[in-house]
Amino acid sequence: MSVLDSLQSSLASARAELEAKKRQAEAYRAKAQEIGTVYEELKEKKKSMRTLKSNVEDFKDTKYDAWKGNFWKQEYKGSGEKVVASYDTVIQEIDTNMDNLNLEKTRYENLANDCYGIIGRLASTINSLLAQIENCVN
């Protein structure tokens, strides 16, 4: 086998390895994108929950002095505070799930970045930092 044949074989091997890394990176990015879609849906749900909570807070302290029940001789006493507290709990759970999804999405993005060597590792570090910041402010 000549030197040229050896170099061509090495080149073919390197190309095959590169293609395998590209496919692997694409698979990781596709998974990260799927997780990102769920994350965005939760973000919308959280926004809706905040709107609903605000709507309940707007009328929870309203007094209905004229209202009397058919069977009771007492005034209406709503439990708006309980409803608001329930919304707070739901929003907090959505937040926790969003943080976990964001971390998992970041993990897949970092796996994809790591396929590209030292520059990919640097991109992964920046990506992780941005995910941590996003989790703190969402």
Count of beta strands: 0
Task: Specify the number of helices.
Answer: 3
Whole-number mean pLDDT: 88
Portion in helices? over 70%
Work out the radius of gyration: 27 Å
Q: Structural class, judged by helices and strands?
A: mainly alpha
Order of helices and strands: HHH
Proportion of residues in β-strands: under 5%
What's the short version?
The protein has 138 residues and is mainly alpha-helical.
Question: What does the model show?
Answer:
With 138 residues, the protein is mostly helical. Helices cover 82% and strands 0% of the residues. The protein contains three helices and no strands. Helix 1 runs antiparallel to helix 2. The longest helix has 57 residues. The model has no long low-confidence stretch (mean pLDDT 88).
List key phrases describing it.
single chain; 138 residues; mainly alpha; 3 helices; rod-shaped
Question: How are the SSEs ordered, and which strands pair?
Answer:
Layout: H1 3-59, H2 80-114, H3 117-137
